[in-house]
Design a protein that fits this description.
The protein has 227 residues and is an alpha/beta fold. The chain is built from 7 helices and 9 strands, in the order E-E-E-H-E-H-E-E-H-H-E-H-E-H-E-H. Helix 5 links the parallel strand 7 and strand 8.
Length: 227
């Protein structure tokens, strides 16, 4: 598997926010979000080839109970099913971070699904050469329903503009998502922008009965790798 980085930090998003966790970040993605905060796994994938056994051993060496397998898009990584099996054999709680475009028979304690809204489509970036593929793949309701039926889940949406709430409402209705499992997270890589957007995102959550997720790692350490 191609791995961009393995590091130990706090979970910065979602229902396990603040939990000490090892992050295993795969490299490679089938989407190209215009605001992607890990372009080194998508727009310009980088990383080292590692065996499943070596990845699991390095993750377990930190001594943390929780591990987050993220990306890029980890569900397209060769060896993903085997990796989650190895991590579970070591007694770890596994969160898989995915856009929900691909299903695989992974072992997972929390499926953290982040479906991409239309605000993510790169119509102008790199001349728009990725836009058609991204737009075609970004929302797969059948895959989302399958993942939601198969695992404990959260649906985490990146919100860049107030009108995004209507798109979230449509997706939640089409997939049968429970309101208490829908989370909104302001888009941004700077604490000031997150605070500004977070105030009106919080109001949307209050109005619609959804949950609000900050980005703790950005607030604590800024837009840096390995945190």
């Amino acid at each position: 598997m191609r791995i961009a980085e393995i590091f130990y930090s706090l979970q910065g998003e979602g229902e396990l926010i603040g939990v000490p966790s090892v992050f295993v970040r795969t490299s490679g993605c089938n989407l190209r979000c215009v605001w992607c905060d890990t372009p080194y796994t998508s727009w310009k994938p980088e990383g080292a080839e590692m065996s499943v056994e070596a990845i699991a051993a390095e993750a377990a060496a930190y001594g943390a109970r929780h591990v987050v397998v993220t990306g890029g898009e980890p569900m397209i990584a060769p060896g993903m099913v085997e990796l989650t099996g190895e991590l579970k054999a070591r007694g770890m709680h596994i969160t898989v971070e995915t856009a929900g475009t691909v299903a695989a028979a992974v072992i997972c304690d929390l499926m953290s699904i982040s479906p991409k809204l239309s605000n993510s489509t790169p119509w102008e970036r790199e001349g728009g050469r990725w836009a058609a593929q991204h737009e075609r793949l970004r929302y797969q309701p059948e895959v989302l329903r399958k993942l939601m039926e198969s695992y404990p889940y959260q649906l985490k949406f990146v919100i860049a503009r107030p009108e995004d709430a209507e798109e979230v409402e449509r997706m939640a209705a089409e997939t049968g998502a429970e309101a208490g499992r829908v989370m909104l997270m302001p888009e941004g890589t700077k604490a000031e922008m997150l605070a500004e957007r977070g105030r009106w995102v919080a109001e949307i959550c209050k109005q619609r009965g959804w949950r609000f997720s900050p980005r703790l790692h950005v607030e604590l350490w800024g837009d840096r790798r390995g945190v």
